[in-house]
Specification:
The complex is a heterodimer of chains A (159) and B (667).
Chain A: H1 15-44, E1 47-52, H2 53-58, H3 60-63, E2 68-74, E3 80-85, E4 88-96, E5 106-111, E6 124-132, E7 135-146
Parallel strand pairs in A: 1-2, 5-7
Antiparallel strand pairs in A: 2-4, 2-6, 3-4, 4-5, 6-7
Chain B: H1 2-30, H2 34-64, H3 70-75, H4 82-87, H5 93-114, H6 125-145, H7 170-185, H8 187-199, H9 205-236, H10 246-271, H11 275-298, H12 312-333, H13 335-338, H14 350-382, E1 386-388, H15 390-410, H16 421-444, H17 450-479, H18 484-494, H19 496-520, E2 523-530, E3 534-537, E4 540-551, E5 556-567, E6 570-575, E7 578-582, E8 587-591, E9 593-596, E10 600-609, E11 616-625, H20 627-645, H21 651-666
Antiparallel strand pairs in B: 2-11, 3-4, 4-5, 5-6, 5-7, 7-8, 9-10, 10-11
Helix pairs in contact in B: 1-2, 1-6, 2-5, 5-6, 5-7, 6-8, 7-9, 8-9, 8-11, 9-10, 9-20, 10-11, 10-14, 11-12, 14-15, 15-17, 16-17, 17-18, 17-19, 18-19, 19-20
The chains are: A alpha+beta (159), B alpha+beta (667).
Chain lengths: 159, 667
């Protein structure tokens, strides 16, 4: 313990320690403020509204032109992958909220995107992009797919 | 039949865990009866062989193809190779939870075996036993009553569904066990920290005792993160390795908290300060482990790879709440006794540097937590669900990581208590100048991105200082008469913690070089080519030769394109990007093919092809500069951690070895 600097409790009352503490409190507040600023600043242009198909159709005007992330289940028979010209491909498919009672469908178009391996019937798609004339245009690299539910579908269990 | 044995063993393990806690708490800690504590400890140790038996029976069922079991039907199929049948143990929710239980039991049993007989640890171990077994009760309860892998189908199936093809990759086979080892490993430091609070033995015994456990957990978590990145790069086919996906963040967050903790414990050991802070950090790490498991398994935040929505979400949430509140109460109760009498003397000191490092790590953690949970937070406060994507994390965490690299350079030069500005200036002057020269050279070679310039400048600064530390240490040993090589090796071997840490820092620098290069300078193009046609990207040219279709092993149909990669007219390598179709499940897999070198990867994907004529195909081509530095740095990082966590020889074994040598000498 010889190398430890001891400051007894009374020393806590000395102005020096008070000033020291103030220094750290101010420093801490500054660090938090900087972090808050970084987060606030980054959120200004990276936040996307997260909507389902039904939510979109309820108030389409609210989402027009906005940066969105849409979640829905893929209808397998709507998937089309076309080569428009050597430089351009177009991937198109439709998603719904609930496969067992498909209500309104939303068409998604992704230009120059590879066809994702997981893009198939029942897969859950999360797509980033914006809506124009009722069609959802995916951002480059904005196509995420989750494993189709059949990998974890409810099985008929005993008891 | 054999599966029933596993099911019974799993149930017995649960019974043993409940017994261990009840006996340890009531008879052991309330009534202070040593014999009962020993019994509780034995009950805890027996959990491991029971779960091992349970896992073994499940693996046997998987290998034999017992499709009357729902789990076996779900994750395996007859024609899967045996090694995949074995690893299907962690290919689905129920099995991976059982496997999780196995690893947790292995850690606790090892801790109970290792820390039992030593006098100084005696006060802590019974409490640590109780705390870690509470975690086991929770996970064993889930495995037994919510996600039991031994449930049977109403009518046995003839064949199974087969493992998700995305998981049929060597990286995927070892990535989950590593991550789980990391996750479960953090239970031990947490349990001993809580033991310190419960027992009132608040000195740094618990820290000394768990330092190595923490490092080992941290090692596996780091390895899991790196392997996960490698898997994404090899399999997912988008040319990247990290997407700030909620599930990735879920494993990064405990790593960040754990890294802060690893640095901060050094201050407590050296200066007897920050005791409360360390308690919070170890609690935070543990809670983030449980929270991470919760995020991955509950599907609460939509993500690419979470297991399907599951009923275990509320249970995890409840457990998380209980552990958070009870641990917090414990810390508050001991608050006065944890307060340190020592204080920071100067902002220019080793302890202050560690404190800044902690703030930055927690800053990154907070930003990542905020981003990951923003869908929940925004829905709670604005009634609108909103998300943030990778650009958010890059914007917030980028500057914070830069600050960390700067600290990584300066901190090793600071001294405990205080360092004079003059001394620090003197020591950083030349490295800073050298880094500046490197920066100017990069600019002269055409680097214009300010992110790359700033990043590489800081990395160069940190690297130079770290290398100088090695040089100074080696020189000091050479003055004592060691040869240069011996001195260099001994420097690390004799000061494993310090120089293992510096190796880790070097690994981070090398990874940083790769991360900046591959993210700032990645190039990509997508194009349809006729056989014989070429496309240029950066310095490289890719020429399409042909595409062929043939049957592979199992139910696979492989479509493979052959392309030539050349640079400046000189042929470099033939690549074979392909698509594999699992016909039974209808699941395609796009397998990239890459030409790897130290300077870059040329990474090609086959997007589509003309099935009839087979003379036209569409490709996506990436050039990923310096990407292999990420993996090389990762390797150095892991080796450095292994050096730092390598156990010291036990005092007893040293004595035995001395005696043996004496015996050999007299012979």
């Amino acid at each position: 313990m010889a190398e430890t600097t001891w400051t007894n409790k009374d020393a806590a009352l000395t102005p020096e320690r008070g000033a020291n503490r103030l220094k750290y409190v101010v420093g801490g507040i500054l660090i938090f403020a900087a972090l808050g600023f970084l987060i606030f600043n980054a959120m200004q242009d990276t936040t996307q509204l997260y909507v389902t198909v039904e939510e979109y159709y309820a108030t389409p005007e609210r989402f027009a032109g906005k940066d969105l992330r849409i979640a829905g289940y893929v209808m397998g028979d709507t998937i089309r992958f076309t080569q428009i010209d050597p430089k351009t491909t177009r991937l198109e498919f439709s998603v719904v909220d609930d496969l067992s009672s498909p209500g309104q469908m939303l068409t998604i178009v992704a230009m120059n995107e590879p066809m994702p391996d997981l893009l198939q019937h029942e897969a859950q798609a999360l797509v980033e992009g914006h809506i124009e004339d009722g069609v959802f245009h995916a951002n480059q690299g904005g196509l995420l797919l989750k494993c189709p539910t059949r990998y974890e579908e409810a099985a008929q269990l005993e008891g | 039949m054999i599966a029933d044995l596993g099911r019974i063993a799993l149930l017995l393990a649960f019974v043993a865990s409940v017994y261990a806690v009840v006996i340890a708490v009531y008879y052991g800690l309330v009534r202070r009866d040593e014999r009962w504590i020993a019994s509780a400890r034995n009950a805890n140790i027996v959990i491991f062989p029971l779960i091992l038996l349970s896992c073994t029976t499940l693996v046997i069922s998987l290998v034999r193809g017992d499709f009357s079991l729902e789990y076996v039907w779900r994750v395996s199929s007859r024609e899967m190779p045996t090694y995949l049948k074995v690893t299907a143990l962690w290919g689905g929710q129920a099995g991976s939870l059982l496997f999780w239980n196995l690893l947790l039991a292995a850690f606790t049993a090892l801790a109970m075996l290792r820390h039992w007989r030593r006098e100084r640890e005696h006060d802590l171990v019974p409490y640590a036993l109780a705390v870690s077994t509470v975690t086991q009760i929770f996970f064993l309860g889930i495995s037994n009553f919510v996600e039991n892998p031994f449930l049977r189908l109403a009518t046995p199936a003839v064949d199974g569904q087969g493992l998700n093809p995305l998981l049929r990759h060597p990286g995927m086979i070892i990535h989950p066990p590593m991550l789980y080892l990391g996750f479960t490993g953090f239970t031990i430091p947490y349990a001993f920290a809580m033991a310190a609070l419960l027992s009132g033995k608040l000195d740094d015994t618990w820290i000394k005792l768990t330092r190595r456990w923490t490092l080992v957990a941290w090692l596996f978590l780091g390895l899991g993160l790196i392997l996960g990145g490698r898997w994404a790069y090899d399999v997912l086919g988008w040319g990247g390795y990290w997407a700030w996906d909620p599930v990735e963040n879920a494993s990064l967050m405990p790593w960040l908290a754990g890294t802060a903790f690893l640095h901060s414990v050094m201050i407590q050991e050296k200066r007897n300060m920050f005791k409360i802070w360390n308690m919070f950090l170890v609690l935070l790490t543990y809670l983030l482990v449980i929270y991470g498991t919760f995020i991955v398994r509950s599907g609460v935040i939509s993500s690419v790879h979470s297991f399907a929505q599951s009923a275990i979400g509320p249970l995890f949430f409840g457990f998380l709440g209980i552990m958070l509140i009870s641990s917090f109460v414990l810390i508050v109760v001991r608050w006065e006794r944890l307060k340190s009498h020592n204080q920071l003397e100067s902002l220019l000191s080793r302890e202050a540097a560690f404190l800044f490092n902690n703030f930055v790590f927690l800053g990154i953690l907070f930003a990542t937590f905020w981003g990951t949970n923003y869908p929940i937070i925004s829905e709670l406060f604005t009634n609108e669900k909103a998300t943030v994507g990778p650009p958010f994390y890059e914007k917030v965490n980028g500057p914070l990581f830069a600050l960390l690299v700067l600290l990584m350079g300066v901190a090793p030069l600071t001294m405990w208590y205080r360092t004079s500005l003059k001394r620090l200036g003197k020591m950083t002057r030349w490295p800073a100048l050298a880094a500046l020269l490197i920066l100017v050279a990069l600019f002269a070679f055409g680097v214009r991105s300010w992110v790359a310039l700033l990043g590489y400048g800081l990395l160069a600064f940190a690297a130079i200082i770290t290398i100088l530390e090695f040089a100074r240490g080696t020189q000091a040993r050479m003055r004592k008469g060691e040869s240069a090589w011996t001195a260099f090796v001994n420097l690390t071997a004799r000061n494993r913690r310090r120089y293992g840490g510096y190796w880790i820092h070097m690994g981070v620098v090398i990874m940083g070089i790769g991360i900046i290069g591959s993210s700032v300078y990645q190039q990509e193009t997508q194009v349809q080519l006729q056989a014989g046609e070429s496309v240029a990207l950066g310095d490289f040219t890719m020429t399409f030769r042909d595409v062929a279709r043939f049957p592979g092993p199992d139910d696979l149909i492989i479509t493979e394109a052959t392309v030539d990669i050349s640079r400046g007219g000189q042929f470099l390598k033939q690549l074979t990007p392909r698509t594999e179709l699992y016909t039974r499940s209808g699941q395609p897999m796009t397998i990239p093919s890459a030409r790897s070198s130290l300077t870059e990867d040329v990474y090609a994907l086959l997007i589509s092809w003309e099935p009839v004529t087979a003379d036209r195909a569409t490709f996506k081509l990436y050039v990923n500069p310096l990407i292999n530095w990420v993996w090389a740095g990762g390797l150095i990082f892991i080796l450095g951690t292994m050096v730092a966590s390598w156990p010291d020889p036990e005092p007893r074994t040293q004595a035995v070895a001395r005696r043996r040598r004496a015996v050999v000498a007299t012979d």
